[in-house]
């Protein structure tokens, strides 16, 4: 009876799990504000859309042509090196409405779409873990660990750059390993297409290509032979990937080689952004000069129990690879372990070693989180399967493991519930009291609720707001009702302003003490005021 009941749970549990997650997402996707990158991504998509319809001479209504004429030419556009393939369908949808959608409509659509991509990635991550650990409960456990990571929970709705890349990184991992297991032309084609979209989303995805070559070579060393089908399949995968990437990246259409070189240079140095000015350990630092910037950020913003089990998993996998001398695989699972670790951590080593510019915490390295959680599941599985002869000590370890996992999940759920929709400033309990020494709401996403507070408490027909202390005043103004938007006049100086919007991005808390203004409202997460409304003194 117990076996039958467990079989039913294994069969229907995943469907119930993902159905519940989908329902939660549908209820929450509209709760979050916007960051400035959402507006930039939309504009970049529109610039590419104009180029595509002009180059391919696609007939569109005259009103659309007139509307797009105000956009710059793609080859003169500053952000032309960012891929937009995943965002292109959203612009097509807007075009179907003659670009008459209200800001709250097209940004809500984008939030839903970002979550949809993330949801698909969670299914792929579940399938990846199921294939590796051969048990539904381990696969669901690992997937739940990602979903209940507070920062990722929030950003899965609005971070249409880093989380979108993280999602497609996971999808790529799942399909690459599927191809390694069965090197059919169908798997090669699917993997090539997915890799093209991943690299278009962010060029860091290119790391998969040398990894594929390296692991095919390891297979050769392992088996002392390489089949003709494997070689042809690899070449076919790369050909499909290169072809699809070219098709979905309009900026490459005219001068692909030259543009590729320019894109590499652009991504390494991020000329639109500086590495300085990141609040880290209480100081504004140049991230290229602090090698431990990424490791510290990962450590303080990841639930501690995940890191603990991930560390166990890492040393277990590392020891196995050392015994194998990194070239011998006893089974396909060992190849999977090494590939996942390599795809997660080698790019971070490269970023640190070559002083690649990063900013805003570790969001540019979110792709590594799949490896962190994968290793955590490996550590948990090893603890639970540690002995063929169960002893008291083995049973005690399993009970302790379950206890701390339940405690961690419970804490995360409560924390998310209490701090929703500001989960994106989560620091684990060991670091939360030091959160003011690190970047906070670096995108100013909470500005939406700061603006709404002013609207709800000031009935005047014209309200002047200085939004120079946040990055997202203008875009979040667009999320207000049309009548409320008309009442707000956003400016970049405080002399004539009635209010100031203050985001604690890379600013220290004391910088909110602005002469002539008083704090009347703040959004607080743990001990950190991430957003503040300041009113001109005597302007009650």
TrEMBL record:
Membrane topology type: Multi-pass membrane protein
Annotated TM spans: 12-29, 111-129, 135-154, 163-181, 193-218, 230-248, 290-318, 338-360, 366-384, 396-418
Record carries keyword Transmembrane helix: yes
GO biological process terms held by the UniProt record: lipopolysaccharide biosynthetic process
Regions annotated as coiled coil: none
Entry's localization field: Cell membrane
A single MF term (Gene Ontology): pentosyltransferase activity
This protein's GO CC annotations: plasma membrane
Keywords: Cell membrane, Glycosyltransferase, Membrane, Transferase, Transmembrane, Transmembrane helix
InterPro entries associated with the record: LipidA_mod_glycosyltrf_83
Identification of the protein by name: Dolichyl-phosphate-mannose-protein mannosyltransferase
């Amino acid at each position: 009876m117990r076996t039958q009941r467990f079989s039913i749970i294994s069969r229907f549990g995943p469907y119930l799990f993902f159905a519940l997650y989908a329902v939660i997402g549908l209820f929450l996707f509209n709760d979050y504000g916007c960051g400035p990158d959402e507006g930039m991504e939309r504009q970049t998509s529109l610039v590419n859309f104009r180029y595509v319809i002009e180059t391919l001479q696609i007939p569109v209504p005259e009103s659309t042509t007139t509307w797009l004429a105000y956009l710059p030419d793609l080859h003169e556009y500053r952000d032309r090196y960012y891929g937009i393939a995943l965002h292109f369908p959203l612009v097509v949808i807007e075009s179907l409405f003659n670009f008459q959608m209200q800001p709250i409509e097209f940004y809500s659509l984008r939030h839903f779409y970002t979550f949809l991509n993330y949801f698909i990635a969670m299914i792929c991550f579940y399938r990846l873990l199921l294939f590796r650990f051969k048990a539904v409960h381990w696969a669901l456990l690992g997937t739940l660990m990602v979903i209940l990571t507070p920062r990722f929970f929030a950003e899965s709705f609005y971070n249409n750059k880093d989380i979108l890349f993280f999602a497609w990184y996971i999808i790529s991992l799942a399909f690459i390993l599927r191809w390694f297991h069965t090197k059919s032309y169908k798997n090669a084609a699917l993997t090539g297409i997915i890799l093209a979209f991943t690299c278009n989303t962010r060029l860091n995805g290119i790391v998969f290509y040398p990894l594929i070559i390296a692991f095919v070579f390891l297979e050769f060393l392992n088996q002392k032979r390489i089949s003709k089908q494997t070689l042809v399949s690899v070449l076919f995968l790369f050909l499909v990937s290169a072809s699809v990437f070219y098709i979905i990246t309009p900026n490459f259409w005219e001068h692909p080689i030259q543009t590729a070189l320019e894109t590499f240079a652009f991504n390494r140095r991020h000329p639109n952004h500086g590495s300085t000015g990141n609040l880290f350990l209480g100081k504004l630092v140049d991230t290229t000069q602090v090698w431990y910037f990424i490791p510290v950020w990962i450590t303080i913003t990841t639930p501690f129990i995940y890191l603990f089990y991930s560390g166990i998993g890492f040393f277990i996998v590392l020891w196995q690879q050392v015994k194998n001398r990194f070239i011998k695989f006893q089974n396909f699972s060992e190849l999977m372990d090494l590939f996942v670790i390599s795809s997660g951590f080698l790019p971070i080593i490269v970023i640190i070693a070559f002083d690649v510019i990063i900013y805003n915490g570790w969001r540019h390295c979110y792709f590594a989180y799949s490896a962190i959680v994968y290793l955590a599941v490996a550590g948990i599985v090893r603890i639970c399967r540690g002995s063929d002869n169960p002893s008291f000590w083995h049973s005690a370890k399993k009970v302790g493991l379950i206890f701390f996992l339940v405690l961690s999940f419970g804490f995360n759920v409560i924390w998310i519930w209490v701090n929703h929709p500001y989960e994106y400033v989560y620091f684990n309990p060991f670091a939360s009291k030091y959160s003011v020494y690190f970047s906070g709401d670096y995108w100013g996403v909470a500005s939406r609720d700061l603006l709404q507070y002013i609207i709800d408490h000031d009935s005047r027909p014209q309200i002047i707001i200085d939004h120079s202390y946040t990055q997202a005043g203008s875009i979040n103004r667009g999320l207000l009702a049309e009548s409320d938007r008309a009442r707000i006049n956003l400016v970049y100086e405080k002399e004539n302003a009635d209010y100031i919007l203050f985001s604690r991005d890379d600013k220290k808390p004391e910088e909110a003490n602005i002469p002539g203004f008083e704090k009347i409202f703040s959004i607080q997460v743990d001990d950190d005021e991430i957003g503040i409304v300041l009113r001109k003194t005597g302007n009650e």
